[in-house]
Amino acid sequence: MKKYILLVVIFSFGIGSLYFLEPHEFVVKGVKDGDVYAEDVNLHVETGLIQPSITLNGKEIHTKKTINQNGSYTLKVKSRFLWKEKRESMTFKRDDEPPLKPVLLEEPKNAYFQSASFQVKEEPGVKYKATLGKDPYLFGDEITTEGKHTLYLVAEKDNGLVAKNDYTFKIDNRTYSQQEVDTFSDFYFKNSPEIWKYKSDTVVFVHGNPKPEDVSRLKSDIQNLNNLLPFNLKYEEKITGLPDRRIDVHFMPTYEFNQMGFDGKIIDGNRKIIGVAVIDEAYRSFGIKASTILIGTETDQQERLPTITHELMHALGLHSHFETDRSSILYPDVNSNVQTWNEKDLKTLEILYHPNVTIGMEKEEFLNSLKDWVTN
Ligand SMILES: [Zn+2]
Fold it and tell me: Are residues 146 and 282 in the same domain?
């Protein structure tokens, strides 16, 4: 018996300390205390001569084990040889679930007046980072730079998995008088219970036989409107592909309007229709998809030009008339002395296309959406 012990002691202190574990020694491989793993954990307890007692969450296991179920684990290894004992205990997690997509605490608005600040909705065990464009953003900081911004959110769990999200918004400091808002409201909601407009870039196609003056009017209107609209109108002479959003402008004699589906009277008493605008297709989530403008080519050039501008305003969603304002391009009857929009016409269009005025809004909601921008 004594010889045997002596032999082992020599063995373990001699060669053993260099190449082998002492009999009671063991090394846990594949996991570290406190770590979280997003993949399978290949646990391996390397042992000396003595087989240690190994338990995982209280259940005995062998020296090798693959852990492929998510959960919290406690590994206990205990080994004893004679008077020498070694115990080790460690906890770790296997979790292959990414964090939830990060969201802001409050649903953001499309636009803010002067400043905006954001907080993230926090989940336990998740760290959040945000950048505004390329710069780091600290939650709660005030953003005051006018214009369009994108806030990028990254959620990271301790298993290293991430989820991303981003929000686009504007700091918009244009203000309106209560009168301007009321003018819009009276003008717009007398003919429609809810807001409709284009939402994104729109191609303007020309058909038929426009005069060069018609084309330059259309082009200059488009150029001016692009300074005001939150997207671009693009003039195209030929139909190329199928754009998502379009306005088709047909130059044709008024007596051919019925071929385009116009079923009204061209001449009614002492009035003659020389231009028509119809919204052909619109969807709640998409906004207006297509509208058609008909311009009578037999009419006098000086009347045709303001008619183009008038119908373009209708096609963009301003479907009413300013019945009592003769200086407005949206006065129902064409007047060759009024060639272009007045300030009120442009304000009305600007309000329709305000980022916080959204498709489907009814009157009350509309009035609320602009509260921050109304100055008296
Ligand atoms: Zn009209």
Answer: no
Alpha-carbon gap, residue 75 to 37, rounded angstroms: 15
- CB-facing half-sphere around the CA of 23: CA atoms within 13 A: 14
Q: How far is the CA of 268 from the centre of ligand 1 (A)?
A: 15
Same domain, 21 and 118: no
Side-chain half-sphere of 271: how many Cα atoms within 13 Å?
A: 9
In a domain, 103, yes or no: no
Cα-to-centroid distance, 210 and ligand 1 (Å): 20
Give the pLDDT confidence of 288-308 residue by residue, as tens digits: 999 999 999 998 999 999 999
Which residues span the domain enclosing 149? 111-171
- Cα 323 to middle of ligand 1, angstroms: 10
The C-alpha atoms of residue 54 and residue 75 are separated, in whole angstroms, by 7
User: How do residues 71-102 score in pLDDT, each as one tens digit?
Assistant: 999 999 999 888 889 999 999 999 999 999 99
Look at residues 39, 31, 35 and name the one whose alpha carbon lies nearest to residue 64. Answer: 31
Tell me: do 166 and 212 sit in the same domain. no
